[in-house]
């Protein structure tokens, strides 16, 4: 039986991923902080093993998984989003919270679990389509995900000799508790089940760039081709409207 470890599996995209992988016959290690939700998930699917810990606690990450377990896929999906509402009164603590959860913890997870990833295995890192163009109020979130995307690119070069593939995941808007908090329009928003299916397929096909829904991400990728000064003018005009 193939084995996958998924962080952020207690909610949203990660929860749908855990269920979808289990339905495809994988043995799933589902990570999160919410023990109750993870236990409920494991009661629905016998192949799901819950692992509850905080990703900001390095020792907890190292103690979470039995060192004898061999993994075929790892998906570092967990993340948080907080916006900088006033750039002039920059909230450094908010910035640190988001960078720690979305980027620094990924380094701890890699140190802990890459040794357990089989040759031929696939590592998925959760970035965001927010990295394609700089977006208003996304100083912390965007910087954390830009870091994840750079990390994924370098790992895809350096892990090639270990026969380990890397996928960088760039979703558009997905219906989850994280986006339920947003107070702005979210075009082309898809369900977390659709997101999970796209990620599973991309990981199975060992694709580097997993992005969806394409009608949305291709528009952003096109904007990313513009010289920055043009995008900057457009973005400032959009804030004023
Ligand atoms: N939804 C979107 O539109 C969208 C778009 C692009 C990228 N993404 C990315 O996709 C990932 C999943 O997002 P989502 O929308 O599914 O959000 P979500 O429903 O809020 O789920 C976030 C998950 O991350 C876990 N998590 C957060 N902080 C943690 C910590 N310190 N330690 C351990 N686990 C932690 C949560 O666990 P607990 O609840 O148990 O604490 C939860 O399982 C994130 O990285 C997000 O940035 C989402």
UniProtKB/TrEMBL annotation:
PANTHER family: DEHYDROGENASE/REDUCTASE SDR FAMILY MEMBER 7B (PTHR44196), DEHYDROGENASE_REDUCTASE SDR FAMILY MEMBER 7B (PTHR44196:SF1). Belongs to the short-chain dehydrogenases/reductases (SDR) family. The keyword Zinc does not apply. This is Short-chain dehydrogenase. GO terms for cellular component: membrane. Keywords: Oxidoreductase. One of its GO terms (molecular function) is oxidoreductase activity. PROSITE patterns: ADH_SHORT. SUPFAM superfamilies: NAD(P)-binding Rossmann-fold domains (SSF51735).
């Amino acid at each position: 039986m193939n084995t996958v470890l998924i962080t952020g599996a207690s909610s949203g995209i990660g929860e749908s991923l855990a269920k979808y992988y289990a339905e495809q016959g994988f043995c799933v290690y589902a990570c999160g902080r919410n023990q109750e939700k993870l236990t409920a998930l494991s009661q629905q699917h016998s192949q799901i093993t819950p692992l509850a810990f905080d990703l900001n606690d390095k020792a907890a990450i190292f103690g979470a998984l039995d060192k004898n377990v061999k993994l075929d896929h790892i998906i570092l999906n967990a993340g948080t989003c907080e916006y900088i509402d006033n750039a002039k009164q920059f909230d450094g603590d908010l910035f640190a919270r988001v960078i720690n959860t979305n980027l620094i913890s990924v380094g701890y997870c890699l140190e802990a679990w890459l040794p357990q990833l089989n040759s031929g295995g696939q590592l998925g890192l959760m970035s965001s389509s927010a990295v394609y163009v700089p977006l208003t109020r996304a100083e912390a979130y965007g910087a954390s995900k830009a870091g994840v995307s750079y990390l994924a690119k370098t790992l895809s070069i350096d892990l090639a000799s270990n026969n380990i593939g890397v996928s960088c995941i760039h979703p558009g808007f997905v219906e989850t508790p994280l986006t339920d908090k947003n107070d702005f329009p979210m075009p082309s928003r898809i369900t977390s089940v659709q997101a999970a299916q796209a990620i599973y397929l991309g990981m199975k096909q060992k694709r580097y760039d997993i992005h969806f829904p394409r009608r949305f991400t291709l528009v952003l990728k096109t904007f990313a081709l513009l010289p920055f000064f043009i995008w900057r003018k457009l973005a400032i005009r959009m804030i004023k409207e």
